Amino acid sequence: MDFQSTVAKLSAPVKDLVLSVTQNGSVHLGKGEKDAREVIEWIAKIDESKLAAEAELKTLDTHLVPRTYLVSNYLTAADVALYGALHPTIAKLQPTQYFAHPSVTRYFDHIQACKPVRTAADALAPAFAPVAFDFKDAPRVERKVEAPKKKDKKVPDAAEAGTSKAAAPLAEAAASAPAEGKAQKKEKKEKKKDGAVADEAGSKKKGGAPAKAAAADDGEPVPSMIELRVGHIVDIMKHPDADGLYVEQIDIGEETGPRTVVSGLVNYIPIEQMRDKYLVAVCNLKPANMRGVKSFAMVLCATSKDGKDAGIELIQPPANSKPGDRIYFEGAEFEDATPIAQLNPKKKIFETIQPGFITLESKEAAWVNPATKTVHRIRTREGVCMAPTLVGASLS
């Protein structure tokens, strides 16, 4: 199964679109053998006749929840083929219908806006005319987290439990237990708690790596106390009760799913430039309520040295970054340090460190030690985090 023969099986307009964007080299067939094979497999299983079915869209929507692209983290011919095959169906949907498949809608809108796709699609008009979505009135996305179940150790009252009267003496006996018995139970409980703490410190993370205990927040604030991670905006809307705020769903590689994050960027960065972006997230701030929506992280931005009205930009992680990738500060004293589990707002650790955050002449994000003037660039293993255009900008 090769690329050309697989694409040849697509219908005329979709086939023409895929060939157009791949023949000029503007879209990848896959970086490496594994990706190339996956691209061909995706194109081969795109059945245009079935994509209009509700069940098919639901399955695709579930698959796209954590993804920007079908293969890896870049645009491929598989995305072009899927966009072309979806177009007739998506173009006919009413708002209530496309909002029922938010991940498909978000994905389709992103792919149709990619420059090589848009250029080729416009040349094949009217087959792939742009589809407009009413994102302004999109329903609010709820982030549901199931509360952990606790075992109820309370001895039930006979009448409450609906059991026989024989159970009543048990409850009465438990209530009249001697004080020393309660003390013994408390002592056992505390021993168990202490043992659990020791066990947690010596336990192993998933995959066998030893778990690192969270750093203490005593002593002089240092930048490595701040936990920075690569984040990916998988959904965004305007705050329902605040004109200047966005509410984003940001994937930072956690099993619990994306975090809800509120950012005051509406007046500085258009929503179209926020969608699907990779960014730097500050992950260990204490969650805060922002006009009725709880925010679980902060988006790190560069603000022009001439003020907010002169420009604000998202700090961007290096290419090939993945949600959850660790971001750290260069320097032997910082690179292997473990961040604090959650910053204590009363100790103002972030506020103390923040004045040293800046973009260098190279536009690289860094922290400059105010005492020694040493420069510690902010980076992942793949490279240094950057501002798109701003030099000498403050980061916050």
Notable characteristics:
single chain, 396 residues, alpha+beta, OB fold (Dihydrolipoamide Acetyltransferase, E2P), nine-stranded antiparallel beta sheet, three-stranded antiparallel beta sheet, 13 helices, 32% helix, elongated, Nucleic acid-binding protein, RNA-binding
Assembly type of the chains comes to: single chain
- The succession of helices and strands, N to C, reads HHHHHHHHHHHEEEHEEEEEEEHEEEE
Uncertain spans:
151-211
The level-1 CATH class of the largest domain: Mainly Beta
The CATH superfamily name of the largest domain is Nucleic acid-binding proteins
Task: Give the tally of structural domains.
Answer: 2
Helix content bin = 25-40%
For the report, how would you describe the main beta sheet? 9 strands, antiparallel
Question: Which architecture of the largest domain per CATH?
Answer: Beta Barrel
Rg value = 27 Å
> Given the structure, what is the number of helices?
13
Strand portion:
5-15%
List how many beta strands DSSP finds.
14
| Euclidean distance between termini CA atoms | 50 Å
Q: How would the global form be characterised?
A: elongated
Task: Return the average pLDDT rounded to an integer.
Answer: 81
Structural class: alpha+beta
CATH topology of the largest domain: OB fold (Dihydrolipoamide Acetyltransferase, E2P)
Biased composition (Low complexity): 158-181
Domain GST C-terminal: 1-133
GO molecular function, one term: tRNA binding
Biased composition (Basic and acidic residues): 144-157
Can you put this structure into words, describing what you see?
This protein is α+β, with helices and mostly antiparallel strands and about 400 residues long. The chain has 2 domains: about 5-135, Glutathione S-transferase Yfyf (Class Pi), Chain A, domain 2, CATH 1.20.1050.10; about 225-395, Beta Barrel (OB fold (Dihydrolipoamide Acetyltransferase, E2P)), CATH 2.40.50.140. It has helices at about 5, 10-25, 35-45, 55-65, 75-90, 95-100, 100-115, 115-125, 160, 170-175, 180-200, 270-275, 350-355; strands at about 230-240, 245-250, 260-265, 280, 290, 295, 300, 300-305, 310-315, 325-330, 355-360, 365-370, 375-380, 395. The strands form 3 sheets. Strands 1, 2, 3, 4, 7, 10, 11, 12 and 13 form a 9-stranded antiparallel sheet that branches. A 3-stranded antiparallel sheet has the order 9-8-14, with no helix packed on it. The longest helix is centred in the middle third of the chain and has 24 residues, at about 180-200. It starts with a helix and ends with a strand.
